[in-house]
């Protein structure tokens, strides 16, 4: 079995409870010592860190920050920093909440009830394998398909979906959808109209048999597909 290496990079952890925040920092340092963790205690501190400290590889965002209500914090981060992946970290891990965060642009969800081993697996899955991590309340306990990517890491490449008749451009758009970008952001990246992007999204939903974006993310997570690195679209690629 291929053993994934520990991820290196920087994570911004936002939680308004001091004991939880520092406890998670110590836990991450124990299970993933190469990962640098910066702390924020509010959404305002999170935004300031993103504005002043450069790009983070991941934001771990609690849903119950003191200066923001519900999903508003996630929505603001996706609007202002669309190219920074956000994974929700919360004790409220029921199916409806998890699905709502995915619909809001989160790339995954980690329950605060998770064991340290699951936290390590989740961070490794997101940062190295570039796969969505979902709790069992949504994944149904289904294990991701144990396929390897071209570089030897875990996860199936979205390019495999060409077998379903998807074009290169549609697969590229799908990659941005999985990362939480909205149609207008994708259109800006690809220098195309929102109408064209919407057609591509609709085509991918139909090809994969998913009724909406949220169910699409769950399906891709269950099947072990990788999320491509964020990059501008290749101008001139076929639509």
What keyword list fits this structure?
Arc Repressor Mutant, subunit A; 239 residues; 11% strand; single chain; 2 domains
Task: Give a short summary of the structure.
The chain is an alpha/beta fold and 239 residues long. Helices cover 43% and strands 11% of the residues. A five-stranded parallel sheet has the order 2-1-3-4-5, sandwiched between helices.
Structure in words:
The protein folds into two domains: 9-139, Rossmann fold (3-Layer(aba) Sandwich); 147-239, Orthogonal Bundle (Arc Repressor Mutant, subunit A), CATH 1.10.10. By secondary structure, the protein is an alpha/beta fold. Strands 2-1-3-4-5 form a five-stranded parallel β-sheet, with helices on both faces. 43% of the residues lie in helices and 11% in strands. Helix 4 crosses helix 10.
Topology of this protein?
Layout: E1 9-14, H1 18-31, E2 35-40, H2 43-52, E3 58-62, H3 72-80, E4 86-90, H4 95-103, E5 108-111, H5 116-127, H6 136-139, H7 168-178, H8 183-190, H9 194-208, H10 213-222
Parallel strand pairs: 1-2, 1-3, 3-4, 4-5
Helix pairs in contact: 4-10, 7-9, 8-9
Tally of helical segments = 10
What name does the CATH topology of the largest domain carry?
A: Rossmann fold
Helix content: 40-55%
The CATH architecture of the largest domain can be named as 3-Layer(aba) Sandwich
For the record, the CATH class of the largest domain is Alpha Beta
Determine the strand fraction and express it as a percent band.
5-15%
| Low-pLDDT segments | 141-153, 231-236
Order of helix and strand elements from N to C terminus: EHEHEHEHEHHHHHH
Sheet having the most strands: 5 strands, parallel
The assembly state of the depicted protein chains is single chain
How many β-strands, per DSSP?
A: 5
Count of individual domains: 2
- End-to-end Cα distance: 39 Å
Alpha-beta content class? alpha/beta
CATH superfamily label of the largest domain: Response regulator
The shape, in one word, is globular
Based on CA atoms alone, the radius of gyration comes out at 17 Å
Average pLDDT, all residues: 83
Q: Which strand order does the major sheet show? A: 2-1-3-4-5
